[in-house]
Write a structure and sequence with these properties.
With about 100 residues, the protein is mainly alpha-helical. The chain contains 5 helices and no strands. Helix 4 runs antiparallel to helix 5.
Length: about 100
């Protein structure tokens, strides 16, 4: 393997460690302010949405809101199952089942 590969891994490890160490160093003794805690509560949902939405709405690089977009159809079913308060395994299973059914058709 090339040395660039290992250098990238090392750089990512240092960046991850630095961001966590700095946040603990700055907020470790005093804790997180209440207003910032309310803000941070929404970060995981925002990050997951930012990662999933482009894959569902634009799987080929452009927005495709048609029935030919299997990702959108499977995602819609998964959202409905999740909305009905089903366990995460049921949500994932429904989305995968719809995706497989559409791929076979």
């Amino acid at each position: 393997m090339r040395i660039e590969f290992f250098m990238n891994i090392l750089a990512m490890a240092i960046a991850t460690f630095a961001t966590r160490f700095i946040s603990i160093g700055l907020l470790g003794s005093s804790g997180v302010p209440a207003w910032f805690g309310r803000f941070l509560k929404h970060v995981p949902t925002a990050m997951l949405t930012a990662l999933i939405a482009p894959a569902i709405f634009a799987p080929r690089g452009y927005i495709e809101l048609t029935f030919a977009n299997h990702y959108l159809m499977a995602g819609t079913v998964a959202i409905f199952v999740a909305y009905k308060r089903q366990p995460p395994i049921a949500t994932m299973g429904a989305g995968i089942a719809v995706m497989l059914a559409l791929r076979i058709m």
